[in-house]
Amino acid sequence: MHNKPLRRWIPFLLITGLLAGGPSLSGSPAFAADPAPQAAAQDANAFTGKITGKSNKAKTISIEVKGKNEFLKFDDKTKGMDHAVEGEAAIVKFELRGADRFATSVEPKLAALPAGVTEMKVDELAKLIAMGPEEGKYVLVDSRPAARYHEGHIPTAISLPDTVHAETGDAYLPADARLKKTTLIFYCGGFT
Amino acid sequence: MSPKSAGLAKKMGHTDVRVMLAGIPGWKKAGKSVTASEKFVQTGNIVLVDLRSKEEYEAGHIPKAHNIPLASLAAKEDDIPIKAPVVVYADSFVEAQQGYNLMKKWGVKTGSIWPGGVTSWTDKGNKLATGPTPASISWVRKLGKNEVGLAEFKKAMDDGANQLILDVRTTDEVKDGVLKNSKHIPLDEIEKRVGELPKGKEMLIHCSTGARAEMAKAALDKAGLKSRVLIADVECEQGKCEITD
Predict the structure, then answer these.
(1) Alpha-carbon distance values, B199 to B160, B173, B194, B202 (Å)
(2) Does residue A121 have a pLDDT over 50?
(3) pLDDT for B169-207, tens place per residue?
(4) Chosen from A4, A176, A187, A192 to mutate, greatest number of chain B CBs within 10 A
(5) Of A49, B13, B34, B113, which has the fewest CB atoms closer than 10 Å, so is most exposed?
(6) pLDDT range class, residue B117, cuts 50, 70, 90
(7) Least CB-CB distance to B39: which of A116, A126, A150?
(8) Looking at CA atoms only, how far is residue A4 from chain B in angstroms?
(9) d(Cα A124, Cα A143) in Å, to the nearest integer?
(10) Please, where are the H alpha helices in B161-242?
(11) Which of A113, A118, A163, A176 to mutate to test the interface with B (most CBs of B within 10 A)?
């Protein structure tokens, strides 16, 4: 909104600093001594986990891998930064540049579907919603926590958080769905 | 999450079970709008916008709503706080969607539509309010549970007895100025240098927006240190820093 000239310089200064082996990188041997990257390196230079943050200013993303926050740098060449969304599961491939881990690509980690369950794409769902639950013979279920449902859900969805569903089974589904007369469609906060 | 629930439904004997894997992000990315719940419109800390004409609005509107007729919305970009959850309604879904799309373009983060306008509102047993629209839109963000307010943060800049300000910006940014009573550790060094922080004090973490502060908080949590983050713009130039909400 209010872009002071100073702000535009920061990324430049930062990258220059990195290329020149700036002050923050002087302790590069510390990286080799740090056990974490080795532990995570079982899959050669890739982290799989939940994105816990992204800073465009520091060109850094953080991802939680086995309960530990790992930091990676990124730049304009990093592919798939659209998928670096806080709270979403992702696979981040990276390379080492000096002491820094540089993300080369970010891909969403696709959830495996249980046997007999198939994916529904946005277009197919939009067509059903245009018909409405009765004519379209469907029940759309928002599996996210209730607070997320309240602030914005897909039209015609009902709220049934996965945690509640796990305890109550069919109890909160509409009658037609309990009688197994409808298509049951679940969604949540993305590729998790 | 949704695949887990789908698995459960399958086990309960449902035969036709699907998962929309793209979820809410995929839905929004496809240019589609989301719906606010009745409870959210009633009690949420929202900005509610009635896109109908002045006459229709004054005759009866959803309580708390501000009136911005759709035709004049384009000129009102500066009136809408983009950090606020903004809920819009109109007579038709198409009009509501137009308002929603425009605000989305402005950068409103959590926009949504109340479908059906005043009709569906009263159908559910809710009352309407009458009269002219409030003079201006005012919205105050409620603090998140890990967040420190600006007033308290500024107090800690003057009195560091129990709190210490932790600056996690880069070394280059810090050259343009730092805040009083603050210690600087760049975000990417936090984990290695967490031992330098005093155990008995609460850390109030800041960067230039709040994004990095939140990442640093995760590291401090793991080290067992008490902390909160400042979600605000911190801009420094020639040794002077300005903080804006």
Answers:
(1) 14, 27, 10, 8
(2) yes
(3) 999 899 999 999 999 999 989 989 999 999 889 999 999
(4) A187
(5) B13
(6) very high
(7) A150
(8) 9
(9) 19
(10) 171-174, 190-193, 211-222
(11) A113
Q: What integer pLDDT is reported at residue A43 of this predicted model? A: 57
Which among B224, B202, B206 has a CA at the least distance from the CA of B215? Answer: B206
Closest CA to B127 of B85, B65, B54: B65
Q: DSSP assignment of A90-153, as one string?
A: EEEEEEEETTEEEEEEEEE-PPPPPTT-EE--HHHHHHHHHH-HHHHTEEEEE-S-HHHHHH-B
ipTM higher than threshold 0.95: no
Q: Which of A39, A47, A131, A58 is nearest to A94 (CA)?
A: A47
**A177 vs B contacts (CB less than 8 Å):** 14
**Which domain CATH number covers A163?**
3.40.250.10
Residues of B in contact with A69 (CB under 8 A): 191, 215, 218-219, 222
Nearest to A150 among B26, B27, B40 (CB): B40
Please answer yes or no on whether A120 and B169 come within 8 Å at the CB atom. Answer: no
Select B150-244's CATH number: 3.30.870.10, 1.10.3300.10, 3.40.630.30, 3.40.250.10. Answer: 3.40.250.10
A189 Cβ under 8 Å from any chain B Cβ = yes
Of A120, A150, A170, the CB nearest to B19: A120
Contact yes or no for A162 and B5 at CB 8 A? yes
Residue B225 pLDDT: 94
Per-residue pLDDT band at A112 (split at 50, 70, 90):
confident
Q: Classify domain B33-142 at the CATH superfamily level.
A: Rhodanese-like domain (3.40.250.10)
The predicted pLDDT at position A158 comes to: 96
User: Among residues A84, A108, A132, which one ends one of the domains?
Assistant: A108
Does any CB of chain B come closer than 8 Å to the CB of residue A158?
A: no
User: How far apart are the C-alpha atoms of A142 and A159, rounded to whole Å?
Assistant: 5
- Domain range list for chain B: 1-30, 33-142, 150-244
Q: Which residue has the tokens 């569903």?
A: A165
Of A38, A73, A108, the residue at which a domain comes to its end is: A108
